[in-house]
Amino acid sequence: MAPLVPSQEELQRRRIIGINAETVTDIPSTDFPGHWPGESHGWALDQFKNNFRVEFHRNERFEASFSLIGLDAAVANAFRRILMAEIPTIAIEDCFIHNNTSVIQDEVLAQRLGLIPLKGSVEGINWMHWYKKASEDGSVEEDGPCDFNTIVLHLDVECYRNEHAHPDEKDPRILYTNSNVYAKDLMYMPVGRQEQYFVGDGAIAPVNPDILIAKLRPGQKIEMELHCQKGIGADHAKFSPVATASYRLLPDIQIVRPILGEDAKKFAKCFPKGVIGLERVTAEEAAQRGSGYEGHAGEEKAVVKDAFNDTVSRECLRHDEFQGKVKLGRVRDHFIFNVESTGQFESDMLFLEAVKVMKLKCNRWKRGLADLVG
Amino acid sequence: MPESVHSQDQDQSMVDAELIEQPQSNDPILEEKQIVVLPGATETAASFQFEGEGHTMGNALRYAIMKNPAVEFCGYTIPHPSDPKMHVRIQTDDTTTALEALEKGFNDLMDLCDVVTEKFTAARDQFNAESGNRMEA
Known about the structure:
The structure holds two protein chains of two kinds.
Chain A: H1 8-14, E1 16-19, E2 24-25, H2 45-51, E3 53-59, E4 63-69, H3 73-85, E5 89-100, H4 106-114, E6 118-119, H5 122-127, E7 151-158, E8 160-161, H6 172-175, E9 176-177, E10 180-182, E11 187-189, H7 194-197, E12 205-206, E13 212-215, E14 221-231, E15 242-255, H8 261-269, E16 276-280, H9 283-287, E17 300-304, E18 326-341, H10 347-368
Antiparallel strand pairs in A: 1-2, 1-18, 3-4, 4-18, 5-14, 6-12, 7-11, 7-14, 8-9, 10-13, 15-18, 16-17
Chain B: H1 2-6, E1 35-37, E2 45-51, H2 55-66, E3 71-77, E4 85-92, H3 98-136
Antiparallel strand pairs in B: 1-2, 2-4, 3-4
GO biological process, one term (chain B): transcription by RNA polymerase III
InterPro entries (chain B): RBP11-like, RBP11-like_dimer, RNA_pol_Rpb11_13-16kDa_CS, RNAP_AC19, Rpo11-like
Protein name (chain B): DNA-directed RNA polymerases I and III subunit RPAC2
């Protein structure tokens, strides 16, 4: 027997998660074999290919917003989690402090330095290897820093009194030189093959040169050697390539019974601007029996203009006059992603990288199946 | 690296590049991590333990395996939050085995990734071309 195929209306109905004043309904996905009697729902690649869509809303260098439509939450969430925790980047990991007479303590300074996002040639970062640390039980030996696993930065700043400053000068930035230590003071020292990879614009440098690292006064000095290594966000947040990577489900507003006149204006005010629009009831609609518009020709009615921008605040559900006239929901398989890069990679590349990591993980585990241990 | 701390010569802590060959593998995340079949497994019903894996793969894999009509049950759990282990339980009917279902799950996920990459790239290129045109106009 051929499997039953549900109607388009039924499929559309199943896509909506209901949002009520105090509860949510129809939360889990139901598109699995065996859930709906007679229907198939087995994995079919060509079907997925036909249904899956991507829509871009914004694509700036370091901030992208796009919709993935036709995906399950499990997969969308995997991409989001990989974006935040499993895409490798470079960050300062080891600080060798030769001299630090500033007021900021060694360990606080080291922590601050680690969090500075660094940029550099993507090709070079991909070429870099992981730095193997010694394991606690001593079974794994440490790699030792090499050109393919460590990038060296130097920070050498000393604060001096500015001889040419006016005697009455109060501003420490003019009174002293190097009173503020900024991220731009980090000097990159290429070693070995790094000279081929990190050249010109691809040199390792802080994304934002104006990050304040420390403040100094005359006679104080910071002298350190910083070793940057490759790592992932799961290990430490400083390695995360994204400032934020989040998704939300597309809001869905259905006006089930007409909302007219003053009520319509009040209804529109329950939503962010542009979500609900006001239109005149046409003579045609008013002539239709049972439409709820009878005798209201020319009056204003509320219509859904753009549910995308809704925050689903549920404000409209608090008012008695809208009781039973509106249904709020979210579309189960429409994920509006927002990816903001910290500046190492372009944000659209980051998402592609996340998909790549996911595939790589699958591949590795699949190979691991060969030597299963029982 | 204690010599670096005491040394005044800044280049000394780096080993000369030519001396050390780069290791072949470039991915420690899954290196030497293995899948273990937990005791009590039969052909069609087994629990697999993934070391160093979490909700990221767990839930996505559960979804892919549940999409297989021959699978009667599939679920995943992380038995203890501070133990980096993830368990996947698979029970299938007679037409397949738990192991095959797991492998199919990986294959389906990889196919899915290919489609996502393809469609994402196409949508991005189209969007960039259109917004480029708009700016020129």
